[in-house]
Amino acid sequence: MSSLLTNKLAKLQHSVENIRNICILAHVDHGKTSLADSLVATNGVISSRLAGKLRYMDSRKDEQERGITMKSSAIALFYLAEGKEYLVNLMDSPGHVDFSSEVSTAVRLCDGAILVVDVVEGVQPQTKVVLRQAWDEGIKPVLVLNKVDRLIGEMGQDPLAAYHHMVQVLEQVNALVAEMFTQEVLEKSNKINQEKEVEIGI
Fold it and tell me: Which of 117, 123, 124, 178 is the most buried (most CB within 10 A)?
């Protein structure tokens, strides 16, 4: 990272309206840390050739040895959009169920999230858990369908079959969101009914 970029990040620290806190959520091995590497590489912190191999955000020795994220970690990145400068605090959170408390903490600190789903594996148990945690905190995540190359390289699908497969994964995620939305509406409706009953004296 150049000294010029470092100075820009330091300056942006004092401009709250230009700061965004974003966390990456996913089931284990769906590609969170590789995506984080790619985003870190855009700021010149690491080489783009090493993105996905270096696991830059996994700073602990045991994380590097086991190849899984165990503790949430963050990095400040510079982002330019439509001539406006932003400081993005990117948080990489664990995907393994044993470290779900780390995900809860990360979600509470953030105002946005990226939900990563492996298109071959689709929605997995931890995908549901992290999506629920984001929903409970009022965060609407951006969906990233990852490892699209596996559809052709491993599964041998043609472009049309790969497209239909991705549509199915998208529908799985939409079904989860619809389920949570319906549950929230029902809970609010029940609460309103209970309040009315108390007022009437039933």
Answer: 117
Answer for the pair 151, 157: CB distance below 8 angstroms, yes or no: yes
Strand locations in 38-147 (E) = 73-81, 84-92, 112-118, 142-146
For residue 93, CA distances in Å to 54, 65, 72, 108, 131 come to: 16, 17, 4, 12, 13
**Mean pLDDT over residues 29-56, rounded?**
81
pLDDT in tens, 110-136: 989 999 999 999 999 889 999 999 999
User: The pTM is what?
Assistant: 0.80
Position with higher pLDDT, 147 vs 196: 147
Which stretches within 22-115 are classed as H helix?
32-41, 61-66, 100-109
User: Does residue 13 contact residue 87 with C-beta atoms inside 8 Å?
Assistant: yes
* Amino acid at residue number 119: V
Given a contact cutoff of 8 angstroms between Cβ atoms, the answer to whether 145 and 26 are in contact is no
Q: Is the pLDDT of residue 2 over 70?
A: no
What span, in angstroms and rounded, lies between the C-alpha atoms of 33 and 39?
Answer: 10
Tokens of 95: 């995907």
Give the dihedral sign, CA 72/50/143/172. negative
Checking if the pLDDT of 96 tops 80, the result is no
Helix (H, G, I), strand (E, B) or coil at 137: coil
